[in-house]
Amino acid sequence: MPNNNDNNADVRTGPARPTAVVTGASRGLGRALTTALAAAGWTVVVDGRTLSISLPGVIPVPGDVTDSWHRARLVDTALATGRLDLLVNNAGILGPSPQPPLCDYPLPNLREVFEVNVFAPLALTQLALPALRDHGGAVVNISSDAAVEPYAGWGGYGAAKAAVEQASNVLAVEEPKLRVWWVDPGDLRTQMHAEAFPGEDISDRPLPESVAPVFLKLVDSRPPSGRVRL
């Protein structure tokens, strides 16, 4: 279906300092995006299971995004700032390490991968949508090239991210006043990437901070909803 979200105007209104929610900000990409947003003048509400972050403009809300009470607290904390402009669904898990082939994939682990990577971000998005609509906000769902490429051993994680991408695609059509971007950050030097390749040297991958400027440009320029490669 075509995407009808072709209005490129920034329709955010209200207080000058916008507010974002970023999940999975304990480390890696989530922490890098949080740091960049805060430096750019955003108030950033962040979460993580093991969260230790102290930056001006950053409000930590430790917890597990699969917990419904915690999701409600994230949104309530953002609303207490007066607005909510951006939701970044970054929290996720890889699943078993090393990645098993689908013929051997433990189904309980697959359910957990979908719970964290698909159901939790959708549930959080549902809670945030009313406030995002009020300010013409945006949703960023972090995806992966594993969502669109058939890599052996990546069936569980890739299937979950493919579900995220299609859900994002449909949400973009259903919410034409918002921006919805499903973002592939590429291979980065993160703990999750190291877990995907146990025992291998991944020091040649770029650090998560390297994609933060492109992410900020995306948020500031507000192109039409769609898939984005950082």
From TrEMBL:
Pfam families: adh_short (PF00106). Coiled coil: none annotated. InterPro entries: NAD(P)-bd_dom_sf (IPR036291), SDR_fam (IPR002347). It comes from the Bacteria. Keywords: Oxidoreductase. Gene3D superfamilies: NAD(P)-binding Rossmann-like Domain. PANTHER family: ALCOHOL DEHYDROGENASE. SUPFAM superfamilies: NAD(P)-binding Rossmann-fold domains. Belongs to the short-chain dehydrogenases/reductases (SDR) family. This is SDR family oxidoreductase. The keyword Hydrolase does not apply.
